[in-house]
Write a structure and sequence with these properties.
Layout lengths: L3 H57 L7 H4 L20 H20 L4
Length: 115
Amino acid sequence: MPSLKDLRNRIASVKATRKITKAMQMVAAAKLRRAQEAAVAARPYSERMAAVLSNLASSMAGKDDAPTLLAGNGKDQVHLLVVATAERGLCGGFNSSIAKLAREHADRLLAEGKT
């Protein structure tokens, strides 16, 4: 049976661990909030960029000298999947979810007979 001193040391150790865990949770919450604010702040730029690219692609449609990437070739057989994952630490679950979705999409395209 542990002595009284051992029990006190164990209680102090658990309290210290609890404090450290609470501090780490607060830091993670602050980082998440900051990342969410950055994503929301970038949304107008993303929407504007989509509009610019859409406008550019529609202005090239029907022209003979238009680049193939903008005008297309009229075929829907070959697809390119660009997969972007996070480079930060502790993102294993996030990255594996993205990779899983990309694999499912690629399998769906292959099942439809596309390249």
